[in-house]
Specification:
This protein has 25 helices and 2 strands. It is globular and about 70 Å long. The two termini are about 35 Å apart. It has a two-stranded antiparallel ribbon with strand order 1-2. By secondary structure, it is mainly alpha-helical.
Length: about 550
């Protein structure tokens, strides 16, 4: 059960690195002449297949914060955390059917372009700058830091900075080839991610079976988990009562049972999958049917993710509670790394490759999005308006270098304090504050012709301020029990409203404010999008994919309700 890597582990990892690099270089060299323009570089326009889009969406989404953070939440909450993944699958259906047609019909390539086209240039510029800062100083830094810390722990704990530089350079190698190289290398990355993740989960279950005397059998090990930790296999966390322990209250604060499904979890997912350059960019260069199929394929892969990122956490909990996991350090976030110590030589290298694949794919996708927004929505419009395609591609590459350099500088000594609050919490906190306002702005902009630019700007600002108010100040200002919410003791001397409920309240009030302001404008805003029912119709094969996904989700909720 040594945690350090052996020669065979390094050999497996090196093979993975060579395969990904060689494949990426091959894709880069095979580009056609018309693929050297700016749109081809940033969007891979017309060259991505549905399976490349779907795989790239998952590879970009799953990173160290999922492996480490969600496995930790599995340790703490259990199967309830799978809701993030299963509701994401439904969100992807909504995006595929109703959001993507709006983007493609109006030739939208970036999220700031959407805001300029639908609202005004000021809104677009404000949000472009904001997204650049968010992507660089929240997302990119946390992915790099968490990834380096996780791999460093497996490699013996003495190579943090070397691993950090290695991850950054690996991601640069891929991202400099543009979106086509990023997307097609993501296919290999997601294959490694899934295979390595499934191997880890299999070993975790067989280890549980071995320790509890039912044999090295994965199914028997899973049954042991359900017997030893039945509370970890309930989707709905009960609302605390006067007799609830602090642990039970903390679980509810993290995931407030049914209230989550009425509020925040939908906002988180729809904003992330439908209004996020980092994600939607993969589909924006494709035709409608290809984009839809790719997104729905990603939704089906999402159903598998809890097995990979959550199940090892539950296994760690059962082993730890029964005295079989003394190597667990660092609380719940150490669960995944502790389970990796059970992997035999060679397979441990595969798991490191899987973790690296998730990290590098996310880094490459993120810097590509940063590069796209900066080049097309800032540099081309305000700095070098006459820039040629070649100049735009070069500027995009400079932006990739600059973004990654900043990420390395700010994570070198953890200047942002990511390690102190936890990477998963860090990302959720800072993105969650702006999600209600951003989603309200996009949703009304797509589907309500009356929405005005003034309402959009006010909505973004109000959404942020309301999020801060409900998350940080509402209990002290208005009391712990109101018609809108109940605040619970957080065990730190204060009271908190569950985060998902805060997001729901912020979203509702932001929507009402934007609607009220928009009524002061014309009945049909001149910049409103033209929508028709035909663009939302789906082909029979698309309907089949949707029905299969929904039936699987329904069965899972029936099983674990």
């Amino acid at each position: 059960m040594s945690q350090n890597l052996a020669f065979a582990d390094y050999a497996v990892f090196i093979i993975y690195f060579i395969v990904v690099s060689a494949y990426g270089y091959t894709i880069y060299r095979k580009r056609e002449k018309n693929e050297h323009d700016a749109k081809a570089y940033f969007l891979a326009e017309g060259t991505l297949t549905w399976w490349a889009i779907g795989a790239s969406l998952i590879a970009s989404n799953i990173s160290a914060e999922q492996f480490i953070g969600m496995s930790g939440e599995g340790f703490f909450l259990g199967v309830a955390v799978a809701a993030y993944e299963w509701i994401a699958a439904i969100a992807l259906i909504i995006v595929a059917v109703w959001f993507i047609p709006v983007y493609l019909k109006n030739k939208i390539y970036t999220m700031p372009q959407f805001l300029k086209t639908r609202y005004n240039e000021s809104t677009a510029l404000i949000m472009a700058v904001f997204w650049l800062f968010l992507y660089v100083f929240v997302n990119l830094t946390s992915i790099l830091y968490l990834g380096a810390v996780a791999i460093n722990g497996l490699a013996g704990g003495e190579y943090l900075h070397a691993i950090m530089i290695g991850l950054a350079l690996f991601a640069l190698l891929i991202s400099l080839g543009g979106m086509k190289v990023v997307a097609y290398t993501d296919v290999i990355q997601v294959a490694v991610l899934i295979i390595g993740g499934l191997v880890t989960s299999y070993i975790a279950l067989t280890t549980v079976g071995q320790y509890f005397g039912v044999g090295e059998n994965a199914i028997a090990g899973f049954k042991v988990l359900m017997e030893k930790a039945p509370e970890h296999f309930k989707m709905i966390i009960p609302e605390p009562t006067a007799t609830s322990s602090q642990l039970e209250i903390n679980k509810y604060l993290t995931f407030p049972g049914m209230m989550s499904y009425l509020a925040g979890i939908w906002i988180i997912n729809l904003n992330y999958w439908g209004c996020n350059q980092y994600i939607t960019q993969r589909a924006l260069g494709a035709d409608l049917q290809t984009a839809r199929t790719g997104i729905l394929f990603a939704g089906m892969l999402k159903l598998l993710m809890p097995v990979i990122v959550m199940l090892p956490g539950i296994a760690a909990y059962v082993l730890y509670e029964n005295g079989h996991l003394p190597q667990l350090v660092g609380g719940k976030d150490g669960a995944y790394s502790a389970m990796l110590t059970f992997l035999p030589t060679g397979l441990k290298g595969l798991s490191v490759a899987a973790l690296t694949a998730a990290i590098v794919a996310s880094l490459a996708g993120k810097v590509n999005s940063i590069s796209t927004i900066y080049t097309l929505d800032v540099h081309k419009k305000y700095i070098q308006k006459n820039a040629t395609d070649r100049a735009q591609v070069n500027i995009g590459r400079y932006a990739v270098f600059a973004a990654m350099l900043l990420a390395v500088m700010f994570t070198w000594n953890d200047l942002l304090g990511i390690g102190g609050v936890g990477g998963f919490t860090y990302i959720q906190k800072y993105t969650g504050f702006i999600s209600p306002g951003v989603f309200a702005m996009f949703f009304l902009g797509m589907f309500w012709k009356r929405t005005t630019g003034t309402a959009a700007i006010v909505g973004v600002i109000a959404g942020f301020l309301l999020s801060v108010l409900f998350n940080e100040f509402a209990p002290a200002l208005f009391g712990n029990e109101t018609l809108l919410y109940t605040a619970y003791a957080n065990g730190k001397g204060g009271f908190e409203i569950p985060f998902h409920i805060c997001m729901g309240l912020s979203f509702v009030f932001t929507m009402l404010l934007m609607i009220a302001i928009s009524f002061a404008g014309p009945k049909v805003n001149p910049k409103a999008f033209e929508l028709d029912t035909e663009m939302f119709k789906v082909k029979p094969q698309t309907t089949v994919l949707i029905v299969i996904t929904l039936l699987i989700i329904f069965a899972l909720y029936v099983k674990f309700w």
